[in-house]
Amino acid sequence: MLDLFYNTPARRKFLRTEKTEFGHIDEVVRRIALSRFDVSINLTHNGKRVRQYRAAKETHQHHRRLSAICGNHFVDQAMQLTWEHGDLAIKGWVEHPLAPVQSSEIQYCYVNGRMMRDRLINHAIRQAYEGYLQGEQQPSYVLYLTVDPHQVDVNVHPAKHEVRFHESRLVHDFIYQAVLSVLRQVTEDTLSLDEEDNGALTATTFPENRQVAGEKCFFAALSSTSNLIYAKKEHGSLPRKCRKRVNRYAKESPKNARYTSVW
């Protein structure tokens, strides 16, 4: 592609520096490369090869391309997501909520293979991460959403970066639940491992339960013979009001009623 705007000076004035414009082109190529793992893509600039993404079919090859585009840090911290419900399906990778660094630059979402920057999708993902991130941290993700083509309108934005879902609330809740389920699962696994590692230490730090103040008596029928159970504390005698209740229940109970101390 050479001299794209050579005969359109009216548009040339809107272009920035060569470095900036090439950065935009590079980002578009990155988006395309993440949407089609099965296609080899080469990017050259001033006669030099800048990017080369080989076609990927196997899982490890997918991770290799993902690492080349998003970086090794994202791949090391990424959690794979797969979620389906009816005509909706979502898959991809989200970054671990406890990762030391989150980057808003790694936020790629595709709807039926088309790159999107939709506010509804971003809101659902941010809401799922709520409580896991602090301050200005942003979640990093690469997600692929599949929707019935008849349930989505892609002609609502000049650059086709936004879509309109006919059942927007359903799609929002679906994405939210899918991401949240993965985050909860991984955090619960992390906490359980920490508890196992520190189990001996935490077990010795808990104080013994102190004896509850006051006195209680309990009554319960064991069977049809109306066997009466009463219990009293090991120290001290049974309170007077409890003795009266025991005597009253004893008179009403059959002659073969027996009394058993629980303690």
UniProtKB/TrEMBL annotation:
Keyword terms, alphabetized: DNA damage, DNA repair
Domain DNA mismatch repair protein S5 span(s) in chain numbering: 66-184
Superkingdom: Bacteria
A single Gene Ontology CC term: mismatch repair complex
MF-aspect GO terms: ATP binding; ATP hydrolysis activity; ATP-dependent DNA damage sensor activity; mismatched DNA binding
Stated family: Belongs to the DNA mismatch repair MutL/HexB family.
Annotated protein name in UniProt: DNA mismatch repair protein MutL
Organism: Proteus mirabilis
